[in-house]
Amino acid sequence: LFTSDDSPCATESEAASAHTRVQDLIELGADIEFFPLSPPEKPFAMERFWGNLLPVDPEDYVSRASARLEELDRRLRMRVHRKRTLQRLNFQICEGVEVAVSVFVTILQAKLPLPVYLLNENNKPLKSETKHICEQTGALLHPVDDVATYVELAGQRISVSRAEVLETKHFCEPGLRLLGFKPDKFLQPHHRIFHSYFVYPNERSITG
Questions:
Q1: Does the global pTM surpass 0.85?
Q2: Among 62, 77, 168, 182, which one is most buried in terms of CB atoms within 10 A?
C-alpha cells in the first residue's frame, strides 16, 4: 500500500470495513506491506488510522519508509533479473563420489537475438531445408546413403560413417570431473579469456 493520506476513511463504517478486510487478508496468510509517503507540508500521523489498522510500529515506521522503499526496489530487481540455472551437472570428485551442482553465469554480454525470417504473405516463420545436389548429374543426394565423410590420414582419405562421427562426439555422460590440482602460478591470463561460471551444490538432484 502506497499512500500519503493518514486518514482516508470519512466515516466510522468505512474504517470498520477496512479493518475487517485487513483481518481477513491476514487470516488468509497475505503479507501486507505499507509505505507511508509523507507530504512536504505536514508529517504523516500513523496514529490517526493506519497504526490501528496494520500490525506495524507507529513510532519509527514513517522514519524507516525511505529505507524500506530502497529494499523494495532491490527485491523487485531480483525478481525481474532472476538468476537462472545455466546447467545442472554431476561433479565427479573421484571414482564413486559425485556431487550434483548447478552452474550459473553472473555476468553475460547481452547480444541481439538472431533474426526470424517470415513469409510476407501470412507472417508465418520460414523453415529452412538443406539439400545436397550431385555436381555431375544434378540429382538429389541422400544425406546418409549418398554423402560420405572422410578423414585425411597419411595422404589417404579414410571413410567415416555418420554414426561413427556422432560416436566420436559423445564419449561420456555430460558432467564435471576433477582431474587434479596445479599451483595458481601456472594459470596465465591468456588461458581463459571469457566470463566466469559460478558452481553451487544442487541438493535437489543428489541429497547429501
A1: no
A2: 62
